[in-house]
Design a protein that fits this description.
Layout: E1 13-19, H1 26-39, E2 44-47, H2 67-79, E3 82-85, H3 95-109, E4 115-116, H4 135-144, H5 165-171, E5 174-180, H6 185-188, E6 204-209, H7 214-220, H8 223-231, E7 235-240, E8 247-248, E9 251-252, H9 254-264, E10 268-270, H10 273-284, H11 291-308
Parallel strand pairs: 1-2, 1-7, 1-10, 2-3, 4-5, 5-6
Antiparallel strand pairs: 8-9
Helix pairs in contact: 1-2, 4-11
């Protein structure tokens, strides 16, 4: 899987973002997306369909039930941004609630979500926690996390009230899995997007580059890293939470602004996550990950988690 991708229109690299919707509201994310749009970036913003029980919530934020927020999301979609899935709401949802959430998503946005990332507080998360890994790697993760995630995530377990694996297979194309420190996500995970026969309820998995918070986002997007991405003619899918500190009191972080402006000046292909992944499949075809490839990715991700703090 080391063949070089030739990007459309002679572009030198590809860049996009999958934005988890944690803590997001109109005040703290609309300026970020206005800025992205003006620079020519088209990225992926995830959503929750419904408001839930705040006492059960993990990092809640606005949902599609908020009329003003929903209309803003539809405006983003009209501009060419992709709307992705972060679960039915900001805490665990039963199978019935997840299906109802997907139905509402389709009603609002006109189609099922193409991309999905598990929210850490959603125990219907597909193959999350130790099921992300296999064999000794899964055991190592369980020990490192002191069993905190042990058997919590159950969306893939048939018969469980949280099971929705068959629905995920039918209605969602891409699911995010491992996050790596390097800006060139495609170099970190050269086989993406891939199908894992050991995790059959997900059609395709993709990886992303570390940018969960403002500091790590700015570090990964440092000018030197941008130049590396360009030189390698690679592809970056940044993982982040734009609702967490990128805009305060209506003002964007200056380093974030400066670095995105610099990146926008380069000859990159700036498209949403699903558009990028579809293009890679068109170029390379379907890829079924081998055991050796899977084990290598798992070990690399575990090493990264140890460095940054495992959760």
């Amino acid at each position: 899987m080391n063949e070089q991708i030739v990007w459309p229109e002679g572009k030198k690299f590809a860049f996009t973002v999958f934005d988890d919707t944690d803590l997001a509201n109109l005040e703290n994310v609309s300026p970020v997306y206005k800025f992205l749009s003006e620079l020519g970036f088209r990225t992926t913003k995830s959503v929750w369909a419904f408001s839930g029980d705040l006492e059960k919530a993990s990092c809640p934020g606005a949902t599609c039930q908020d009329e003003e927020y929903r209309q803003w999301l539809l405006g983003l979609q009209e501009e060419g941004f992709e709307i992705g899935w972060h679960g039915a709401t900001y805490h665990a949802s039963t199978r019935e609630e997840t299906i109802r959430g997907l139905d509402e998503f389709k009603t609002v946005f006109g189609q099922d979500p193409m991309t999905y990332a598990v929210h850490v507080g959603n125990y219907e998360g597909m193959y999350f926690g130790e099921p992300r890994l296999t064999g000794v790697n899964a055991l190592a993760y369980t020990l490192l996390t002191r069993f905190k995630q042990w058997r919590k995530f159950r969306g893939h377990r048939e018969g469980d009230p949280l099971f929705w694996g068959d629905v995920c297979k039918e209605r969602v194309k891409y699911c995010r899995n491992f996050v790596f420190p390097g800006i060139n996500t495609l170099r970190e995970c050269p086989c993406m997007p891939y199908f894992n026969p050991a995790r059959p309820y997900v059609n395709y998995w993709f990886a992303s580059s570390e940018g969960a918070g403002l500091e790590s986002f700015n570090r990964t997007l440092h000018p030197d890293c941008q130049d590396i991405l360009e030189e390698q003619r690679g592809a970056c899918i940044m993982y982040t939470h734009f609702g967490n500190g990128f805009c305060r009191d209506g003002k964007l972080d200056e380093v974030f602004q400066r670095q995105l402006e610099r990146l926008a000046g380069k000859d990159g292909w700036f498209v949403p996550v699903a558009t990028l992944l579809d293009f890679i499949i068109e170029q390379r075809g379907h890829h079924e990950i081998s055991r050796a490839e899977r084990s290598k990715l798992e070990r690399k991700w575990l090493a990264h988690k140890i460095r940054i703090g495992t959760s």
